[in-house]
Design brief:
By secondary structure, this protein is an all-alpha fold. It contains 10 helices and no strands. 65% of the residues lie in helices and 0% in strands.
Length: 188
């Protein structure tokens, strides 16, 4: 069986998600494929509708509003929509992405937050994977993340927990209590 045979089989036998992703990610000759119909079928599919109906706004505090095991938490919802084939070309997805950009803007303007780099990286991960990598705010956030990584490597003390602490201390000018340092080192 050739790759063309496999692609044709997936297009004929797959559900809406498989057909759309096969057409847009695997098929090299899309001339014979009605991608617009596949997009429409994808958006109407039960699984996509289920995920689009979830509300990513969480009542959980702090980091748990973005990063948690619940399906409706922002990180999981956005990544599932990408996995299903949605991206910046879908208005239904763009609504969620615009909220992500606002969250990113807010995070970038906050100071003295220890998990800020993690949360920004989390938001950037799905914005970049879904076609928003050229947005000015995303480019700025990426540049800052790469600068932070450069600072991390230049510390030359690559014990992860101490290096994170060093970057945080440099950014905030604050010291952590000894118990927090022990926790970061895994000594508790």
């Amino acid at each position: 069986m050739t790759s063309t045979d496999l692609i044709n089989w997936l297009l004929e036998n797959g559900g809406p998600v498989i057909r759309y992703k096969t057409a847009t990610e695997l098929a090299t000759d899309q001339v014979k494929i009605d991608v617009e119909k596949l997009r429409s079928d994808l958006l109407k599919s039960e699984i996509v509708q289920k995920w689009l109906q979830l509300n990513p706004v969480s009542k959980l505090p702090g980091i748990y509003a973005l990063h948690h095991s619940r399906s409706s938490i922002y990180e999981n919802l956005m990544n599932k929509l990408i996995q299903l084939g949605l991206n910046s070309t879908f208005k239904a997805y763009d609504k969620f992405a615009q909220e992500s950009l606002e969250i990113l803007r807010t995070l970038m303007n906050l100071h003295n937050i220890f998990l800020k780099p993690f949360l920004i990286s989390l938001i950037l991960s799905f914005l970049c994977r879904s076609g928003y990598e050229n947005e000015e705010l995303v480019r700025l956030a990426l540049d800052r993340r790469f600068d932070a990584l450069k600072d991390f490597v230049q510390l030359k003390k690559l014990d992860f927990s101490w290096s994170l602490y060093g970057i945080w201390r440099k950014q905030t000018g604050k010291e952590m209590g000894r118990n927090r340092i022990n926790f970061l080192d895994g000594e508790n």
